[in-house]
Specification:
The chain folds into two domains: 1-22 and 68-169, no CATH class; 23-56, no CATH class. The protein contains six helices and five strands. The model is unreliable at 106-119 (pLDDT under 50). The radius of gyration is 22 Å and the shape is flat. The strands form two sheets. A three-stranded mixed sheet has the order 1-5-2. Strands 3-4 form a two-stranded antiparallel ribbon. It has helices spanning 15-18, 32-36, 42-50, 130-138, 151-168, 173-176, and strands spanning 70-71, 97-101, 111-112, 118-120, 123-129. The chain is of the alpha+beta class.
Protein backbone atom coordinates (compact mmCIF):
# COMPACT_ATOMS: atom_id res chain seq x y z
CA UNK A 1 0.00 0.00 0.00
CA UNK A 2 1.23 3.53 -0.76
CA UNK A 3 2.46 5.47 2.28
CA UNK A 4 2.89 9.10 3.28
CA UNK A 5 6.39 10.52 3.76
CA UNK A 6 5.97 9.85 7.50
CA UNK A 7 5.11 6.20 6.82
CA UNK A 8 1.35 6.06 7.46
CA UNK A 9 -0.79 4.30 4.83
CA UNK A 10 -2.88 6.29 2.35
CA UNK A 11 -5.45 3.54 1.80
CA UNK A 12 -4.70 2.48 -1.79
CA UNK A 13 -2.16 0.41 -3.68
CA UNK A 14 -2.29 2.52 -6.86
CA UNK A 15 -3.41 6.16 -6.50
CA UNK A 16 -3.90 6.45 -10.26
CA UNK A 17 -6.53 3.67 -10.18
CA UNK A 18 -8.84 5.83 -8.06
CA UNK A 19 -7.77 9.23 -9.36
CA UNK A 20 -10.12 11.34 -11.39
CA UNK A 21 -9.69 13.26 -14.60
CA UNK A 22 -6.80 15.73 -14.68
CA UNK A 23 -7.70 19.16 -13.28
CA UNK A 24 -5.97 20.72 -16.32
CA UNK A 25 -8.12 18.88 -18.90
CA UNK A 26 -10.72 21.09 -20.61
CA UNK A 27 -14.11 19.85 -21.84
CA UNK A 28 -12.82 19.74 -25.41
CA UNK A 29 -9.75 17.60 -24.54
CA UNK A 30 -7.13 20.35 -24.40
CA UNK A 31 -4.52 20.97 -21.73
CA UNK A 32 -5.35 24.04 -19.63
CA UNK A 33 -1.84 24.00 -18.14
CA UNK A 34 -0.38 24.64 -21.60
CA UNK A 35 -3.19 26.95 -22.75
CA UNK A 36 -2.63 29.31 -19.84
CA UNK A 37 1.13 29.01 -20.08
CA UNK A 38 1.30 29.29 -16.32
CA UNK A 39 4.07 26.78 -15.75
CA UNK A 40 7.82 26.77 -15.92
CA UNK A 41 7.93 23.88 -18.39
CA UNK A 42 8.35 25.76 -21.68
CA UNK A 43 9.22 22.56 -23.58
CA UNK A 44 5.98 20.89 -22.51
CA UNK A 45 3.97 24.01 -23.40
CA UNK A 46 5.66 24.25 -26.83
CA UNK A 47 4.90 20.56 -27.52
CA UNK A 48 1.24 21.06 -26.59
CA UNK A 49 1.06 24.21 -28.75
CA UNK A 50 2.38 22.26 -31.77
CA UNK A 51 -0.34 19.65 -31.14
CA UNK A 52 -3.05 22.37 -30.84
CA UNK A 53 -2.94 22.02 -27.02
CA UNK A 54 -4.40 18.50 -27.12
CA UNK A 55 -3.89 16.43 -23.97
CA UNK A 56 -1.04 14.08 -24.85
CA UNK A 57 -2.24 11.32 -22.50
CA UNK A 58 -5.78 11.04 -23.80
CA UNK A 59 -6.62 7.94 -21.79
CA UNK A 60 -7.53 7.99 -18.11
CA UNK A 61 -5.46 4.92 -17.25
CA UNK A 62 -2.25 6.64 -18.38
CA UNK A 63 -2.31 9.80 -16.26
CA UNK A 64 0.99 8.88 -14.60
CA UNK A 65 2.74 9.64 -17.93
CA UNK A 66 1.93 13.35 -17.80
CA UNK A 67 4.45 15.46 -15.87
CA UNK A 68 1.76 18.00 -14.90
CA UNK A 69 -1.12 15.69 -13.97
CA UNK A 70 -3.15 16.82 -10.97
CA UNK A 71 -6.45 15.47 -9.65
CA UNK A 72 -7.81 17.29 -6.62
CA UNK A 73 -11.16 16.68 -5.04
CA UNK A 74 -14.15 18.95 -4.88
CA UNK A 75 -16.21 16.13 -3.39
CA UNK A 76 -19.20 16.79 -1.23
CA UNK A 77 -19.33 13.26 0.21
CA UNK A 78 -16.84 10.82 1.70
CA UNK A 79 -15.27 8.54 -0.88
CA UNK A 80 -15.17 5.67 1.65
CA UNK A 81 -18.46 5.78 3.61
CA UNK A 82 -20.59 8.26 1.65
CA UNK A 83 -21.15 10.78 4.49
CA UNK A 84 -22.31 14.08 2.99
CA UNK A 85 -20.80 17.41 3.99
CA UNK A 86 -23.00 20.00 5.66
CA UNK A 87 -21.36 23.38 6.25
CA UNK A 88 -23.07 26.03 8.31
CA UNK A 89 -22.07 29.44 6.98
CA UNK A 90 -22.01 31.28 10.31
CA UNK A 91 -20.51 28.51 12.41
CA UNK A 92 -16.77 28.11 12.80
CA UNK A 93 -16.89 24.32 13.09
CA UNK A 94 -14.41 21.83 11.72
CA UNK A 95 -15.60 20.47 8.35
CA UNK A 96 -16.98 16.94 8.22
CA UNK A 97 -14.94 16.20 5.10
CA UNK A 98 -11.22 16.58 4.60
CA UNK A 99 -8.94 16.41 1.60
CA UNK A 100 -6.96 13.15 1.67
CA UNK A 101 -3.75 12.93 -0.35
CA UNK A 102 -3.18 9.67 -2.18
CA UNK A 103 0.10 10.68 -3.78
CA UNK A 104 3.09 12.35 -2.19
CA UNK A 105 6.36 13.46 -3.74
CA UNK A 106 9.40 11.48 -2.66
CA UNK A 107 12.45 12.97 -0.95
CA UNK A 108 13.79 14.30 -4.26
CA UNK A 109 10.52 16.14 -4.95
CA UNK A 110 9.36 13.80 -7.69
CA UNK A 111 7.17 10.73 -7.96
CA UNK A 112 8.06 7.58 -9.82
CA UNK A 113 5.54 5.79 -11.97
CA UNK A 114 5.32 1.99 -11.77
CA UNK A 115 7.73 1.59 -14.68
CA UNK A 116 10.29 3.74 -12.84
CA UNK A 117 9.93 6.81 -15.05
CA UNK A 118 9.87 10.23 -13.46
CA UNK A 119 6.20 11.15 -13.23
CA UNK A 120 6.63 14.63 -11.82
CA UNK A 121 5.21 15.79 -8.54
CA UNK A 122 1.61 14.69 -9.01
CA UNK A 123 -1.07 15.74 -6.57
CA UNK A 124 -3.94 13.28 -6.20
CA UNK A 125 -6.60 13.83 -3.55
CA UNK A 126 -10.00 12.43 -2.62
CA UNK A 127 -12.57 13.56 -0.11
CA UNK A 128 -12.86 11.59 3.16
CA UNK A 129 -14.85 12.32 6.30
CA UNK A 130 -12.55 13.00 9.21
CA UNK A 131 -13.48 9.67 10.84
CA UNK A 132 -12.56 7.64 7.75
CA UNK A 133 -9.48 9.81 7.27
CA UNK A 134 -8.26 8.85 10.76
CA UNK A 135 -9.01 5.16 10.13
CA UNK A 136 -7.10 5.14 6.84
CA UNK A 137 -4.01 6.81 8.32
CA UNK A 138 -4.21 5.00 11.66
CA UNK A 139 -4.81 1.42 10.55
CA UNK A 140 -5.16 -0.91 7.61
CA UNK A 141 -8.45 0.66 6.40
CA UNK A 142 -8.66 1.29 2.65
CA UNK A 143 -10.59 4.00 0.85
CA UNK A 144 -12.35 1.40 -1.30
CA UNK A 145 -13.69 -0.55 1.72
CA UNK A 146 -17.43 -1.10 1.91
CA UNK A 147 -17.92 1.08 4.98
CA UNK A 148 -20.78 2.80 6.77
CA UNK A 149 -20.46 6.22 8.38
CA UNK A 150 -19.22 6.22 11.95
CA UNK A 151 -22.04 6.80 14.54
CA UNK A 152 -20.28 9.98 15.73
CA UNK A 153 -20.16 11.23 12.14
CA UNK A 154 -23.88 10.61 11.67
CA UNK A 155 -24.66 12.41 14.95
CA UNK A 156 -22.60 15.45 13.91
CA UNK A 157 -24.16 15.53 10.45
CA UNK A 158 -27.68 15.37 11.95
CA UNK A 159 -26.85 18.14 14.44
CA UNK A 160 -25.78 20.32 11.52
CA UNK A 161 -28.80 19.34 9.46
CA UNK A 162 -31.11 20.35 12.36
CA UNK A 163 -29.34 23.69 12.67
CA UNK A 164 -29.62 24.19 8.91
CA UNK A 165 -33.35 23.42 8.94
CA UNK A 166 -33.96 25.77 11.86
CA UNK A 167 -32.45 28.58 9.76
CA UNK A 168 -35.17 28.00 7.17
CA UNK A 169 -37.91 28.50 9.76
CA UNK A 170 -39.74 31.80 9.92
CA UNK A 171 -39.59 33.96 13.03
CA UNK A 172 -40.99 37.45 13.21
CA UNK A 173 -38.58 40.21 14.12
CA UNK A 174 -40.40 40.58 17.45
CA UNK A 175 -39.79 36.92 18.30
CA UNK A 176 -36.22 36.90 17.02
CA UNK A 177 -35.11 39.99 18.96
CA UNK A 178 -37.42 39.71 22.00
CA UNK A 179 -34.60 39.37 24.54
CA UNK A 180 -32.41 42.29 23.50
CA UNK A 181 -34.88 44.60 21.80
CA UNK A 182 -36.80 47.72 22.62
Amino acid sequence: MERTPSGTPVGVDDPYAVAGVCDHLTDDGRCRYALEGAGDDSGFIADRRRDEYACHVGEEDRWCLCPHYRSTTNGRDCRRCGLQEIRLPHEDARPLLEEHHLRYADATGTDRSEDGADAGSHEITVSLCRWCHAKVHGSFARIDDDANPDPEAIAERERRRSAELSEFGFDTARDRYADGGE
